[in-house]
Amino acid sequence: MYALTPAITDAWRTLLLRVGQRASLAWDYEPHAAPAPMRSLWDRGDNACVFMCGLPFITGTPRPILLAAPVPSAPRYEGRPIYFTEFIARADGAMTDLASVPAGTRLAHMLPESNSGYNAPRHHLLTLRGATGVSPFIRAGQPTPTPMAVIQAVAEGRAELGVVDSYVLDLLRRHAPQIMAPLRTVATTVASPIPVLVASPGSSEDEAARARTALLSAHEDEVCRAAMQQLQLARFAQVRASDYSVLAERQAESERRGFSLTEETAR
């Protein structure tokens, strides 16, 4: 989910293998790179420690075993396991905010199961649009199922706006600034609970407990701490399933009011 460049991937590999070592677990690091769908990863029965978006975590059954959530180190995260969705546009374009977006504006977004790429920006727009209940956006012509696909659609002019996980963007700002150089953020949603590390349903509770303990103390280990600095993480935090209920509540409100993120397919 967050393995965006070779350097970032290497840092995740180092961190997670070290966590497994500290937990006395025989882990292998198996890449699951785009365009492989995230759902196919989450549906596997042998995941010992994998990132999962909070929306399918809280709404799906059977529910995976909760391990821990990352805490990004940038000040805006306030030392909490949260993140945001950023609305991004081309830096050389006319788009500066969401207040005066004309009808028919193309929006690059992810699948409805994504919180940052669909649910959070939909609820943000619902709040902004109020009683009108009408989105100004149409969907970009080509599917954009991943954050990088959204970013590319905006950078290449196939969409005027895109919605992307703020932690993804922070990692790219550090490790691939050339990708972010043509873009700017024009709006940011309220905070959501960040994607969580889970083990597959039915996994060993003992092994999950050992993995959880190793994650929660990873910032105390020199090897983990060096990798976490590269990943802009302060620590991992203990979270509860109930912390993610707000995502289902926001989704339900948008659906109850019949509000769509985009109103039609781009022609």
Provide the descriptors you would attach to this structure in a database record.
2 domains, 37% helix, 10 helices, 267 residues, 4-stranded antiparallel beta sheet, D-Maltodextrin-Binding Protein, domain 2
Compact summary:
With 267 residues, this protein is α+β, with helices and mostly antiparallel strands. The protein contains 10 helices and 11 strands.
Tally of distinct domains? 2
Figure out the total of helices: 10
Order of strands in the sheet with the most strands?
A: 6-5-7-4-8
Number of strands: 11
Percent of residues in beta strands? 15-25%
Helix content: 25-40%
Mean pLDDT: 93
Helix and strand sequence: HHEHEEEEHEHEHHEEEHHEH
Q: How far apart are the first and last residues' alpha carbons, in Å? A: 30 Å
CATH superfamily of the largest domain: Periplasmic binding protein-like II
CATH topology assignment of the largest domain: D-Maltodextrin-Binding Protein, domain 2
Structural class by secondary-structure content: alpha+beta
Largest sheet: 5 strands, mixed
Under the CATH scheme, which class of the largest domain? Alpha Beta
